[in-house]
Amino acid sequence: MGNKKAIRDVYGEVLVEIGEENKEVVVLEADVGSSSKSILFGKRFPDRYFNVGIAEANMAAMAAGLATAKKIPFANTFAAFMVLRAGDPVRSLIAYTNLNVKLAGTYAGLSDSYDGASHHAIADIAFMRALPNMTVISVADAVETALATRAAAAFEGPVYLRLSRAVVPTIFDDRYKFEIGKGVQLTEGNDVSIVATGYMVHKALEAAEVLKSRGIEARVVNMHTIKPIDKELLIKCAGETGAVVTAEEHNIYGGLGSAVAEVLAKEYPVPMGFVGIEDRFTESGDYEQLLKKYGLSAENIVNQVERLIIRAGQ
To answer: Is-catalytic flag, 144?
Structure first.
């Protein structure tokens, strides 16, 4: 893994690039443009940038209206507020009518660490993936952020783009191929599959190195698209490794772990473990300390894998 770069910075830069290429792209902001970095688009294209103030539901409704006029709106706010405050129009106007709106949920997971439980997004994946017509993407690094933002803009239909505030290690390079709905295997391994998304992908890679030193070969999969999820890859991994651990910066209920379990329970049941927030509200504090406290660490992934292998009798 290479140098670190903030996901939000890359997102803002790519929005400007997309705006240069396509005049139908417009951006809406709920008064957190400096945080989401959508302000970069506003500075470059002030006539296509709308800061609606702290009015997330109104922003989502406006985005729906702009989509009916053939614009390609990117609506931006913190992930927690995209669900909790804009949830009604996201459901009833955008998803229900299958409009071409892109919802950028920034500061996802615990990445707005010092603002505490009110700003932490631990249920947004669960909400968004339960909406018919909604595509759900969770990015792992700066390279993937750029590619996913472009893919979302080109995709016809509603997309939820889950973005962290964090400065993250660069995992991918310019050879990386991103395709909506297709997970990516990052390491070889036949003892267990670790299926991770977002910030937890690099934690999974760290865990795989530790496991390797202990004689366990872990296959790491980056599941950047949680809906539609890559069923074919999941079934292949389950069949070849016989056990699966999921890792996500989200409640263990309703997110990536639930999505993977739904597929495997029906298609290829294997022993599973789940790394995520154990159905608790979180607190404010240093980001990495919070991740460790709530089990979102490479160490906990290692522990889950080792317990799972014992339980599976491997």
So the answer is: no
